[in-house]
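Materials and Methods. Structural model of Na(+)-translocating NADH-quinone reductase subunit F. The 125-residue sequence of Na(+)-translocating NADH-quinone reductase subunit F from Geojedonia litorea was retrieved and submitted for structure prediction as follows.
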Amino acid sequence: MKTPLNTQELHNLAMNHVGKELEQRGFEFIAVNSKLKKHPQFVCIDKNKQYYFVIVRVVILPENPNNYDMVWMEAFKKHAREQDAKVLYAGVGLGNPEGEDLPIYLNEEYLIEYNGIQVIETYLN
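The predicted structure was written out as tokens:
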């Protein structure tokens, strides 16, 4: 019997994809938070000891994973500036290849739309 992934499991799947990219880019993980609606999901530093707050957002396709709440992001950017951190955003879209109305199942193939990590400028507009 197929087991559909719940919201937390979908979020964890997206975080796995993003975490692998962060590792490949040479980031060192300071903290990881996989709980839903807790931000940032990753706190990392680079080789120059610059801190980064990484936000991971998962959506179900065909929703666009690159869109985010601009008002919320402004508040988050303020928090990052106060901590002398840079903000990275990773939107991940997941879907069932058999149809967009079907859930994503555990241990089954899935579609992914992931355009990589985006730098979010934290300067004031």
